[in-house]
Amino acid sequence: MELVIDRLSKQYKNKIAVDRISLRLTPGVYGLLGANGAGKTTLMRMICGILKPTGGTVVLDKADVSTEEYRGKLGYLPQDFGYYPEFTGLDFLMYMASLKGLEKSYAKRKVKELMEVVGLTEQAKKKVKTYSGGMKQRLGVAQALLNDPELLVLDEPTAGLDPKERVRFRNLIGELGKKSIVLLSTHIVSDIEHIADKVLMMKDGQLIYQGEWTEENGDLEEFYLQQFGEEAGHE
Known about the structure:
Elements: E1 3-12, E2 15-25, E3 28-33, H1 40-47, E4 55-60, E5 63-64, H2 68-72, E6 74-77, H3 89-99, H4 104-117, H5 133-144, E7 151-155, H6 163-176, E8 181-186, H7 189-195, E9 198-203, E10 206-211, H8 220-228
Parallel strand pairs: 3-8, 3-9, 6-7, 7-8
Antiparallel strand pairs: 1-2, 1-4, 4-5, 9-10
């Protein structure tokens, strides 16, 4: 399993949002760090096929990002996760399963399994509007996992979570990275330090660092602050 990003670019008039980024990702958790405006969300939307690149390619196991085969291998949790407040968590996941074309009997088994995985079994029949921020994020991860994705893309998934919810979320993502390619975008350095196998850092649309972060590299948060200063928006 391999995601190959080759010279991927996105330009809006005179602004280059993503500038010729190339990556090869295999199963594991990849933490994408960068201040707001660094190009993280633009990059992730192109990887998910939501935005058409100005140049470059995105291929997952020889399937191009524009194909149905690619979409069938993808799970995505956007930064602004939309939900239906009057639906129960169970009804919401069943609805999303139908949109993904899953057969009903399989969907019922899968939804039950995922509710347990994300720790929402006891809240399955409660309305989503009653969920805490962390519970909604876990529900979002569950919907992204309905099709057993090989590639899971998460945009700022821990923003707004309290410390306890954040730890639980990190543990969940760490487990998922054992069998899938997980790309997690954040500006919260501690999220990356705890769960990422490799660090990707973006600034002004370019990758300024990619690879494992070890003690020999020094303190990750200190390096991040040196790069972005007041723009960092760290927590």
